[in-house]
Structures are given as C-alpha cells and as structure tokens.
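Is this the right way to post structure tokens for a design question? Let me know if I should format differently. Anyway, here goes:
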C-alpha cells in the first residue's frame, strides 16, 4: 500500500504547493455554485472540500484524481430530492446528507466485493447522453441566474425553460452586464493565459464592482450570509422509508462516479507511469462520501476538469488536495464575510462556462460520424434524462447497454479460413459464397463464445458454408474453437441440430484449437461428443484433403 503523499519530494514541493493554491482558487467558486444547483446552502459545497477531501487523500491509490462534488452530481441531487422536499428545507438537507452516506456505503461494498466492473455497462454514449441531459438542465437554471430572472430551480426542465422564456421581460440589465463581462473574461482569459484561475478573478472583480456601485440595491442578487465555522459532526435523522426512497438516486450517483472516476484514474496512472488500484479508489470514494454526509455536505465524485487542471500545472501528487482542504478550512473560520457580496450572475457565469463541455456536443458529433446506433443510444439517454428524470435516465441507460451488448454478441465474426489460417470469407456477410479451405474441407472460425444470442446465427452460417459449394462437395467440417471460451444450453441444442444436419449431408465434424478451460464445459453440454480434436495446420488440412476423394468414392458406392 503506497503512502498517502507518494511522489512528494523536496524538489517538487514548491510546485505542488502552488498547484494547491490554484486548485483552491478553482474549487471555491465552483463548489459554491454546485451547492446552489443542488438546492443546498453554500457551506455544503465548502464542507465537501475539508474532511471528505482529507480522508479521500489518505485512502486513494491515484496520485492525481481530485474528489469533489461536480455539476452532474449536484443536478442529480436536485432532481432526485426535489420531488421529496422543498429545496433548502431541513428535510431536504437531511436527505442530501443521507444520500451521500448511502453512496458511501455502496462504494465500500463495490470495493469489498470487487464489483467495479458493473460500471463498465455505462458506455461512453450512455455517459455522454446522461451527463449531457443533466448539464442542459443545469444550464437553464444558470442562464436564469445570469439574467436575474426568477424561476423554480427545483422544477422539471420544461417548467424551468418555460419560466425562463416567460421571464425574459424581467431581465435585470445590471445582472446581464455582469454576466456578459464574466463570460468574456472566463473564455478569453483561458485562451490567453490558461494557468490563471480566472473563476477566482471573475468572482473577486464582480464582488468589488457590486460593492463599489451598490448594484445589490438595483436588483442584482448576491450570495448572502455564509455561516462561519468549521464543519461539525452530524447525522441525518430520517425514517427508514425515506432512506429507501434515496437508494435509487444514490445508486445512479455511485455508478456514474465509478465509471468516470475509475476511467480517469487509470488514464492518468498510465499517462504518468504509476500504478492505481480500482478497488482502493472505490474505497476512497466510499469513505469520502460517508464523511461528506456526516458533516453537512452532499455526494462527492471525481472532478475530471480539476484533475486535468492539476496535471497541466505539473502536479503529480495529492498534496494540492490537502492544500485545498487547509485553505477552505481557513476561509470557513475567518473569511466567510468575504463571500456575502458575491453576485449571483457571476456565479451563474462561472458554473455555466464550466458545464458547457458536459453538453457533449463534440462527442455527439463524433458518434454521428462513427456509429449511428451508438449516437441513438446517447440521444435516447439525453432525452429521457432531460424530460423524464435522472433515475429513469440511468435505468434506460442500463437497458440500452444490454440491448447494445446483445446486438453485437448476436452478430459475431464467423469466417471460412484458408489453409494458412487467414479468413477468406465472412459467412455473415456472405462475401464469398462457396469458399472452401481446401478441396472437400471447410474450416470455420467462430470469434465469440457460443450462447443463446448467437447460437442460431452460427448454425445457420455453418450450414450455408457446407451447402454453398454444391451437393457432396464438402466432406469435412472443422470448427476452430480458439475464440469459443464458453457455451450455454441453448447453444448446445442448436449445435445438436447442426450435427444432425451434417450427418444428413455425410459430413464429418472435427474441432481444432480447443481451449482447455472450456473443454469440460463443452463436454458436459454434449457439444464435444465423439468428434476429433486436433490443431489446425497445413499438414492436418492436407491429410483431410487426401482422405476426401477416397471417402467420397466409398460413400457414393
């Protein structure tokens, strides 16, 4: 087990500390905005940066992955709890804390039972669609905030959009001016000097302008009072029915974080040449979420944008996260008064610009070019998440993942091999009807396990390969089993039907390159009956080819 601050040396200490200051400047304004998206007080976003961050750093295997609430998690919290209690109420806050604790327990169970592979069912199109739907829902709320238009941020997407359009006539010109200036600084600033924490710059400048000009008296909304003090130990008091109601949304949060977090952790480990442990990373998310729920915050996930920012700044350790925790604690103890006059339009601009990449416009365009079916999966997830809800969205995502898996598994590569083991014809595409490996011989390779989804396709393809050259032309069928790692009962029944067909055509059947790990299973199912098993090579094919004429003469007699 590696030490918590692996990679820190006296040579990179200053660089890592400076990276921590940058991370602090990025995280403070974003977490305040994400807490507002979630329908929680600003302190809920700040508390997540203290104790949860510290316990995460002590457990995680990744040297760079940053843990924090993000936009998608905040939107999921709002959409899943908004229908159960009024945003900002005591019950609502208690449910958000309970949801984080449930997430933490699920992460721990995934780590203990090594079930992280379940998140692999959330393919890229599914994640793009799911997160994109959440992002657009968030964006509508942030645009309303930027315009100074009042809408019900806890409502459905259609209601929010209707409220925004209907309220355009009440746009506050000063809020609009602050928003335009904030977006311009964020976008142009990052293009010119990407290392500068422009979110912090915008927050400071906007606050100074509001204080100097008294814009709060002209209708510009400000953050308001932020309670001072360190986070304290708490526990959500709810009846057990309410805890159960939070399980589906907690499961969705857990799966999305698992899929994204493990992918980002592994990619940076490979990129920077250090080892990561998926189960330890899941355990780290678990303890961080339990800590978040037990001290006044909401669900914690992985932050791809902050991890990328730390990598670009040269950081290769978790020290910046500890600097973030220490800096946030100092702010909570001594500097909350500085936050009271932050204008809401500036926060909306910061969050809005941050979530724009989550809409997945480029990803959808790439999917459209590469695979229309994958694009359709992403689009369905996007629309269901946006118009029906986040929980139905994640359920539809799993159903679509299974459909996509079955679709691909039902059409495996089935080829006729040449005598040098190269494919000469695809049976599913019928590219070369009547192709044979050698005179009287067809060697067929199935590039997938045999199971209910593809068994009939395989049997049909093999019959076609044997019958296509003409009556009596094929005397030997060899099935290459190298890629057949498993089979099921349906496949065995289909295989028996195929064997009957081969016997009626007076075709002998043999197997080649049978995997030792699959042999017992295939014998138990009756697929390996008394057929000959050998290694496919030129000598074997020549031997069968030499036997074919004599066998044909004997059988014709």
């Amino acid at each position: 087990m590696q030490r918590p601050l692996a990679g820190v040396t006296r040579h990179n200490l200053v660089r890592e500390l400076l990276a921590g200051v940058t991370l602090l400047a990025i995280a403070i304004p974003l977490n305040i905005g994400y807490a507002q998206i979630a329908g929680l007080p600003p302190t809920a976003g700040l508390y997540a940066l203290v104790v949860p961050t510290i316990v995460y750093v002590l457990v995680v295997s990744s040297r760079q992955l940053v843990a924090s609430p993000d936009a998608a998690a905040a939107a999921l919290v709002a959409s899943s709890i908004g229908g159960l209690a009024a945003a900002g109420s005591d019950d609502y806050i208690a449910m958000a804390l309970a949801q984080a604790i449930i997430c933490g327990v699920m992460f721990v169970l995934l780590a203990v039972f090594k079930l992280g592979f379940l998140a692999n069912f959330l393919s890229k199109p599914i994640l793009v669609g799911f997160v994109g739907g959440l992002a657009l829902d968030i964006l509508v709320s942030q645009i309303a905030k930027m315009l100074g238009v009042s809408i019900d941020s806890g409502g459905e997407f259609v209601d929010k959009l209707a409220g925004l359009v209907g309220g355009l006539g009440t746009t506050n010109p000063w809020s609009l001016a602050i928003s335009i200036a904030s977006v311009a600084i964020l976008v142009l600033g990052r293009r010119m000097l990407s290392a500068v924490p422009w979110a912090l710059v915008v927050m400071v400048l906007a606050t100074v302008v509001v204080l100097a000009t008294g814009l709060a008296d002209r209708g510009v909304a400000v953050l308001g009072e932020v309670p001072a003090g360190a986070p304290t130990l708490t526990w959500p008091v709810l009846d057990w029915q309410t805890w159960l109601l939070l399980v589906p949304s907690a499961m969705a949060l857990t799966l999305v974080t698992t899929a994204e977090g493990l992918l980002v952790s592994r990619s940076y480990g490979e990129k920077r040449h250090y080892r990561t442990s998926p189960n330890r990373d899941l355990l780290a998310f678990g303890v961080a979420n339990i800590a978040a729920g037990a001290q006044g915050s909401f669900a914690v996930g992985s932050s791809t944008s902050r991890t990328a920012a730390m990598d670009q700044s040269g950081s290769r350790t978790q020290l910046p996260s500890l600097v973030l925790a220490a800096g946030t604690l100092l702010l909570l103890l001594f500097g909350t008064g500085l936050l009271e006059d932050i204008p809401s339009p500036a926060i909306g601009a910061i969050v809005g610009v941050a979530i724009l990449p989550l809409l997945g416009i480029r990803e959808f365009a790439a999917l459209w070019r590469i695979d229309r079916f994958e694009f359709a999966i992403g689009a369905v997830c996007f629309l269901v998440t946006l118009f029906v809800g986040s929980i139905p969205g994640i359920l539809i995502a799993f159903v679509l993942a299974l459909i996509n898996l079955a679709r691909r598994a039902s059409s495996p590569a089935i080829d006729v091999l040449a005598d040098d083991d190269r494919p000469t014809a695809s049976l599913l595409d019928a590219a070369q009807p009547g192709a044979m490996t050698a005179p009287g011989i067809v060697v067929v390779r199935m590039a997938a396990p045999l199971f209910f989804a593809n068994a009939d396709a395989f049997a049909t393809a093999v019959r076609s390969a044997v019958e296509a050259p003409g009556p009596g032309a094929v005397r030997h069928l060899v099935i290459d089993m190298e890629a057949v790692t498993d089979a099921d009962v349906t496949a065995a029944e289909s295989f028996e039907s195929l064997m009957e067909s081969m016997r009626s055509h007076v075709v002998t059947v043999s197997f080649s390159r049978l995997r030792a790990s699959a042999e017992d299973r295939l014998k138990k199912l009756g697929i390996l009956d008394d057929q000959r098993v050998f290694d496919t090579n030129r000598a074997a094919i020549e031997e069968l080819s030499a036997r074919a004429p004599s066998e044909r003469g004997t059988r014709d007699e």
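Format looks fine. Someone answered above. Worth noting: The first strand starts at residue 66 and ends at 68. The mean pLDDT is 85.
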